[in-house]
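Worked Example 4.2. Consider the chain below.
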Amino acid sequence: MSTPTRAARNRLAGMVLAALLLPAAAGATEVATLPMTAGELADLCAADPATPEGAASVNFCHGFAQGILSVLDRQVAAGGRQGVCIPTPAPTRGAILDTFVTTMKLLPAGRSKPAVDGLLEFLTQHFPCSH
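Applying the procedure from the previous section yields the following structure tokens:
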């Protein structure tokens, strides 16, 4: 299975960082730190959305995941090999990320990988394409 190139991962990380540096809307809560590891990303995904900080963390997690899927889609559109195939009907983003959180709890060695790499590995393993 193909994963995004280093350049694509760097572009994705740059987009995420740029979004974090934009001024927050009045009254909005921000994520305190940029997740550097898959474990830190899983912790954000597992936050309690009933609190302002938790809601910001969960929203960041969902946006991060959507950004990765968007980069993968762009790579396929540019002629790259498809590495993630979400089934139809697709599970919800929340359900996919809940499984990611569970996976990070069950496989603690994966928690130390860079956030982009850890989530990409999870997606390619859970939603492989038959080529």
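The radius of gyration is 15 Å. The chain has a mean pLDDT of 81. Compare this with Example 4.1 before moving on.
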